[in-house]
Structure formats: C-alpha cells, structure tokens
Amino acid sequence: MPPSADAQDPAGAPTDDTQGPRTGAPGGTGPLPDPSAAGAHRLDPAGGCPHARDARLRERGAVAPVVLPGGVPGMLVLGHDALRDFLAHPDVAKDARHFTALAEGRIPPGWPLRTFATVRGMTTADGDDHRRLRSLVSRAFTARRVAALRPRVEALVEELLDAVAREAAVDGVVELRSRFALPLPMRAICELFGVDEEFRGRLHHLSSQVVSTGTTPQEALAADREMVEVLARVAAARAAAPGDDLTSALIAARAEDGDRLSQEELIGTLILFVVAGHETTLNLITNAVRALCGHPEQLALVRAGRATWADVVEETLRWDSPVSCFPFRYPTRDLTVEGTVIPRGTPVLAGYSAAGRDPAAHGPDADRFDLGRPAGVRHLSLGHGAHYCLGAPLARLEATVALERLFTRFPRLALAVPEEELAAHAGFVGNSVRRLPVRPGPDTRER
Asked: Does the predicted model carry a pTM greater than 0.85?
C-alpha cells in the first residue's frame, strides 16, 4: 500500500531531511525582490491569448524578465534559437534543488506553480536520474507500441463522433472541446496507464487546476493533495491487480529493484503523463479545429490532396502551440543568453508559443497559418534536447486521426460563434480556449 499523502509535500515531493531542505519552510533569507521595479513583465495569472504579449516581449529581445504569481522573479525565453539552445544547455537543470528561492524557503506551500517544481519524476530529474526514469517509461512510446495503438485510437474517435452526431441531430450545436477533444486523449492515456474509469473525470478536473496559474493558495494545495491521493489509489489498484499497462510495469520494475523507482517518482510519473498526456493533446485538437474553421482555404488544400493531416498538426503546433509558457528550468550558473544574463537559480519558462511565431526563425509571415509553408526550421512545441516530449508520437497519432475523421464525417463543420467570442484558456501555461461550440452539419455516415 502506498504511503499516506500526509507524509509528502502536496505535489509528492518527500519532506524528510535526507532529501534536502524542506521547501516552503519558514525562515529563508528574507522577502523576494520586486522584479517589476526593474521593468519585468508581470504575467497575468488569468491567462488569455498569448500572441500579442509574445510579440511585444519579443521586440525587446529573445529573453524577458517576468514576474510570476506571488511576485516571484523569473525569466521567459521567447526567441526560437535562444530557446532551442537553452533547452539543450549543459548548465541548465530541471531539478528544483537549483531553484534558489524555493531552496531558501521563500516560496509558500500554496504557490500555484509549485507542483511544476516539486513533483518528483522524469520531468524534474537530471542526468542519470532522468535517464533511469525515462528508460522505464519509454517502452510505452516506441514507434511500434504507438503504431499498435492506432486501431484503438480509431475506434475511440468513431465512438466519440457517433455521440457528436447524436447530439448535433438534437441541438444542432455541439461543445466539441468537452465532447470530443477532451475524452479522446484522456481515455487513451488512462487506458495506457491502467487508470480505471472511476478516476478519470476527477483527474481531468484536478489536472486543469494544476496547470492553472490563477488558483488561490488554498485551491492549489487542495488540488495537489487530492491529485497525489487519487493517483496513489490508482497505483494501489494496479499493485493489487496488475494488468497490461504501464503503471503495472513501473510497479513491477520497482519491485524487482527497489531503488529504481521510489513511490514519489511513481506518483510524479503518473502526474506528468496524466496531466501532460491529455491536456496538451486536448489543446492541440481544439486549436487545430479553430485554425481550420478560421482558414477554409487551408482546409481546402488538405481536401485537394495538396497538404496532409500531419501537416495540419505540425503547423498548429507551431502557429498556436498547445503550451504557451512551460515551467521550469534553472541555470546552475549565471548564463548569458543572447545578451541577457539569467542569474543562477532563476526559474525560467520555456516560451513555446512565442518561439513558434518568431519571425527570425519562421519568416516575416510567421503569424500566418500556412500548410504550404516551405520546409525549414522545425517548431519547438514538443520540446528539445534530453527532455523532448516522450509522448509526441501518441499526441501526433491522436490528433491526426481525430482531425481526419472529424472533417471527413462532418465536411460542413463550422464554429457556432465568432472566433473573438471564444474565451481564452485560464492561466499562462496552457494555450487554447475554454469552450469550442460548433455546428457539425450533416454526417456523411447518414447518407
């Protein structure tokens, strides 16, 4: 049976003295400085469309000082080349022991971005630890394993589209984000990790709170604690009744060699894949549908065979990245990035949405959604370097199948409200809209 969540940091990080300083402990070295006094940009915790903000900040340079929620000073890397080099730099770490303010106890327990720093798992590990954890998980995302998932993904897509057709026949309008873009990746990742259906709805709610930057300290703490508790129950269920899923395989690896995967690392791995494994693909599908509805001439290229659905996925990843500002990396020494010094121990955000529209990398028309864009610089929206997104093949498969079948069955699909009326995603980590009401139109299966 897993240890109680009471013995852990809310995000799953151990708190005994053998693991280093207790993050969030009182004392520290005094209050945080006010970075806005030095002209740093204060990120809006409520989020909103990031592209106008990105353009303004990029005009100042490839790196921008920012104010994170709670007045925490940070940096945002916006330029494509700067971000590519920073993500692969040998003196940039993911382990939060390098986060100076956190290690000194100046970050409160209810800080809304704390989970990104303190969760113990592959995404916050460096060096040998990262290689160890990644090797345990990578077996689920080999090209062969992902290709074998295609029939199941196709069946899920058709099942969900049948439900869309039934709802459209009654009301004419369907909220596509919650009815289609969400359940597909959520069900796929949960089946892959052996998460029983009883947990799935709650996990989506909790993961939405985890990636939100506008939660109160009390909400953040409660969401973190419950996420750990729910995933501990998932792990306990798989330990009691192992199956052909990755959670069972990770538990078996731990049982064979107890120091290979700690309980905190197991829970941290589940948090990473349950949250990232559905939230980013949810945003990707949502953003691609919006892009095609808003650019019918580009959709016509696909229907004429002059572009592919894979092209749609890649251009959406570049043009409207499902992740805007991803936390965190920490320089282990003072680094100068394109003329800007990033002090050692600073929490740094990866500006994927900004890099995707960087004219220096993607040309003067980088703001244009264009499936015929000449092959050139690849986007960074799935990461770069040692921490490149392990689930990228699965995300691409899900999005490609989803878009092809959606627009084949509903060729007249259109937004049900003007684009400008779609409310932006809460927070500055994810990038999408909260709802996507569409009019599917006739279902070709009914003909």
From this structure: yes
